[in-house]
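Thread: iron/sulfur cluster complex, take 2
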Amino acid sequence: MTSPADPFWRTTPLSEMTDRQWESLCDGCGQCCLHKLEDSDTGAIAVTEVSCAYLDLETCRCKDYANRSSNVPDCVTLTARNISALHWMPQTCAYRLVAEGKDLNWWHPLISGDPDTVHQAGISVRGKAISETEVGDLEDYVSGWLETHRANLDWREKEPRRRSAAGFRNGKR
Ligand code: SF4
Ligand code: SF4
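Output below.
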């Protein structure tokens, strides 16, 4: 049960949020901008420590967010409609949490009031990622600290090819 005093993410469906509310939901973890690999036999998704070249590894924000789709064609635009199907999104992602009817965590800037808490809590990729411009084979960089997700069958039907690069960021709904 919600009350009018509750913050917007508890009272407003993702599809009805203003652009400002939607953008503020991103905690700035940068996890969605890491490359992922899909096992073509099992469908398992492994997250690597390798980031998109456009990810600022200090702020964990996109260096050119406005042009992300043209800069990186497989940078998937997150929407209220597709979030539930994107099972490889991190379990800590605020969009995923809200879509699942869960609350934000203490370290989310909207809760803490401090954009640094996502880094202090060890949720962001700061200090854990390396740019794709610095590495060779992605398979040598499968992450040990991030979870491994099993691919969703619906997603595999839509995206059957082996996925070697992925950025999933918020944008227009
Ligand atoms: S969209 Fe989600 S996973 Fe990506 S940076 Fe924002 S909160 Fe993190
Ligand atoms: S994956 Fe997309 S949002 Fe993330 S850094 Fe790359 S272009 Fe920017």
